[in-house]
UniProtKB/TrEMBL annotation:
Entry keyword set: ATP-binding, Cell membrane, Membrane, Nucleotide-binding, Transmembrane, Transmembrane helix, Transport
GO-annotated cellular components: plasma membrane
Domain ABC transmembrane type-1: 41-332
GO molecular function, one term: ATP binding
Transmembrane segments: 38-61, 81-103, 164-183, 276-293, 299-316
Coiled-coil intervals: none
Subcellular location: Cell membrane
Protein name listed in UniProt: ABC transporter ATP-binding protein/permease
Lineage of producing organism: Bacteria, Pseudomonadati, Pseudomonadota, Alphaproteobacteria, Rhodobacterales
UniProt key word Protein biosynthesis: no
All residue ranges annotated as the ABC transporter domain in the record: 366-601
Classification via InterPro entries: AAA+_ATPase (IPR003593), ABC1_TM_dom (IPR011527), ABC_transporter-like_ATP-bd (IPR003439), ABC_transporter-like_CS (IPR017871), Type_1_exporter (IPR039421)
Membrane topology: Multi-pass membrane protein
Pfam families per the UniProt record, alphabetical: ABC_membrane (PF00664), ABC_tran (PF00005)
Organism: Gymnodinialimonas ceratoperidinii
Length: 610
């Protein structure tokens, strides 16, 4: 099934009110498991057979002891018969254990397979949902938290079928049927044999719930630890440049010690409660031996019956302890599942409108009509009353002080965010009424952040068009003034880029992103301060190449340096989210306003300061 189809099915809530409850979360996970019905059937049938065979062993051993004792009382001939009976019972027990082992293998294999299929579907849905969530969501969420959620929480949900559903069937058979057999054989010994069950079940459940609570806290502390490491690795050059190693080591040591302290607490909880449960089991077994031996002496029960009781107790010890694990499995699935499904069920801020059609570009006219925008949670609007029009072949420059809303305008055109007022149209089509895929095929932005993937230079340049021929890749890199540099590398375009492009200079990384964008030949091309790290000579050559192709598209240039956009057909000066001046370079200089002041500051800073 395609990832999108999997995501859509998984993300559909079971109801509109109480889906966050643990019960509905567990129900949703169970429905996912049932999507592999034949694996579920084999796992459950194998569990029933394995548990039934395990319960036969005490019965067989008890009968073997009684038969041997009876036959030995018959003298030499009885000894031979006893030996034969013991061999027969031994082979029978061996056969039962081997058969049980085979079905236990089936149980474990297929229950784990079901869990891994659930994990596979959830991972696809989770990753696909992250790709569709808006920039606004990623602005608020730390990537380390998303990674933790997509690994640890998802793993907790994945294990539910084997540790929850299969285990509850197994324990029901072992404890239920085993307890019935004990009580029906001898009520007094049965009650003594089962006397440890309530205490162990209670302590095991309490222990697992405590461990679950501390695990969630440990998970948060490990998430903090991951965040510290991620930030340190991402900013390793800053750390080295400012000799920040002692501070960073102290910060990491503190986070690590917090996690270690809680890990020690978890070990203490587990050891203390395991000792208490083992002691209660041994006390119950001692009582069964004491009372049972008296019954044997009085002839009330046989030695074989007492053997069966002791063997049953040994078999039941582990299932009873697993009651706590069962409680923990349900609690973990409810908790982790709610966190995972909470993300999967988030409403998408940016999505295709019902009945959205592909964007059809003819004249290539981009129009902002009284556009306003406010970031979620912001106290005041970032943009107000932005109106302008750009036609194919025109270059629009946008400049203004930091925080004035320049980059926000660039982000609104490909719908990284949706306008909160007014409209943006391309050839009269509101961009909110067309499909995102078609819009982002026609509108491409070169971001300020020159992000590169850890792969070859060729793959980075051809990211938007993976099947492009080498000639097209070379043309795009030449337009970005990068081809000559790549030609000097021993591996050429096959050279592997380090993590986030660390092996390249800032200017080279920005030229890589420009080349990646030029591969697509969009109808609207946006440069969001994307040549800030490029030297003036290279920027001039890039600008000349782009101008030669400008007749094919609308070009938007957002910049802080006037040299980057003074050639534009029209320049918009943005201040406090509004267009305060507009015109070409000469007109704005003649106006003598803010643009002229900025021009004088950048070109004659000493005179502007006087």
């Amino acid at each position: 099934m395609a990832p999108m189809a999997v995501a859509d099915e998984i993300m559909r809530p079971t109801d509109t009110v109480g889906w966050r409850s643990g019960f509905n979360t567990i129900k949703r996970v169970t429905k996912l498991a049932l999507r592999t019905p034949w694996m579920v059937a084999i796992a459950l049938i194998s569990t029933v057979i394995a548990a039934t065979l395990q319960l036969l062993v005490p019965v067989l051993l008890g009968r073997a002891v009684d038969q041997t004792q009876l036959l030995l009382s018959g003298g030499a001939s009885g000894a031979e018969a006893a030996t034969a009976a013991l061999w027969a019972t031994a082979w029978l027990v061996l056969g039962v254990w081997v058969t049980r082992g085979i079905f236990t293998v089936f149980q474990n294999y297929f229950s784990e397979s079901v869990g891994h299929h659930v994990g596979y579907m959830l991972r696809l849905a989770y990753y696909e949902k992250i790709q569709r969530l808006s920039f606004g969501f990623h602005d608020r969420m730390h990537s380390g938290d998303l990674i933790t959620l997509g690994m640890l929480d998802l793993e907790g949900v994945r294990m539910f079928f084997s540790t929850g559903l299969v285990r509850i069937l197994l324990l029901s058979i072992l404890i239920g049927v085993g307890g019935y057999l004990l009580l029906s054989t001898d009520l007094t010994l049965g009650l003594l044999a089962l006397s440890f069950v309530p205490f162990v079940a209670w302590r095991s459940s309490v222990t697992q719930l405590k461990l679950r609570g501390t695990w969630l806290e440990l998970q948060n502390r490990l998430s903090d630890l991951s965040r510290v490491m991620e930030e340190n690795l991402g900013g390793i050059r800053v750390v080295r440049a400012f000799a920040g190693k002692p501070y960073e080591m102290g910060k990491y040591r503190s986070a690590s010690e917090n996690a270690l302290d809680l890990a020690h607490e978890r070990v203490d909880i587990r050891v203390r409660n395991t000792s208490m449960m083992t002691f209660s089991f041994l006390v119950a077994m001692g009582l069964v031996l004491w009372i049972g031996s008296g019954k044997v002496m009085r002839g009330d029960i046989t030695v074989g019956t007492l053997t069966s009781f002791l063997t049953f107790m040994t078999i039941l010890q582990m299932p009873v302890r697993q009651l706590g694990m069962l409680v923990n499995s349900f609690a973990r699935t409810a908790t982790c599942g709610e966190r995972v499904f909470a993300l999967l069920d988030l409403d998408l801020a940016i999505t295709d409108a019902p009945g959205a059609q592909d964007l059809q570009v003819s004249d290539g006219v981009l129009r902002f009509d009284n556009v306003g925008f406010t970031y979620p949670g912001a106290a005041k609007p970032t943009l107000e009353g932005i109106s302008f029009e750009a036609r194919r072949g025109e270059t629009i420059g946008i400049i203004g002080p930091p925080g004035s809303g320049k980059s926000t305008i660039a982000h609104l055109i490909p719908r990284f965010y949706d306008v909160t007022g007014g409209s943006i149209t391309i050839d009269g089509q509101d961009i909110r009424d067309v499909t995102l895929a078609s819009l982002r095929h026609e509108v491409v932005a070169v971001q300020q952040d020159a992000f590169l993937f850890t792969t070859s230079l060729e793959n980075n340049i051809a990211y938007g068009d993976p099947w492009a021929p080498p000639s097209k890749i070379a043309d795009a890199s030449a337009s970005a003034q990068l081809h000559q540099f790549i030609a000097t590398l021993p591996a050429g375009y096959e050279t592997i880029v380090g993590e986030r492009g660390a092996s390249l200079s800032g200017g080279q990384r920005q030229r890589m992103t420009i080349a990646r964008t030029l591969m697509l030949r969009p109808s609207v091309l946006i440069f969001d301060d994307s040549t800030a790290a490029v030297d003036a000579g290279t920027e001039q050559r890039i600008r000349t190449t782009i101008q030669a192709q400008a007749d094919e598209r609308v070009t938007i240039i957002v910049a802080h340096r006037l040299n980057s956009l003074m050639h534009a057909d029209r320049i918009l000066f943005i201040e406090d989210g509004r267009i305060v001046e507009q015109g070409n370079h000469a007109e704005l200089l003649e106006l003598g306003g803010r643009y002229r002041a900025l021009h004088d500051l950048q070109n004659r800073p000493e005179e502007a300061a006087q």
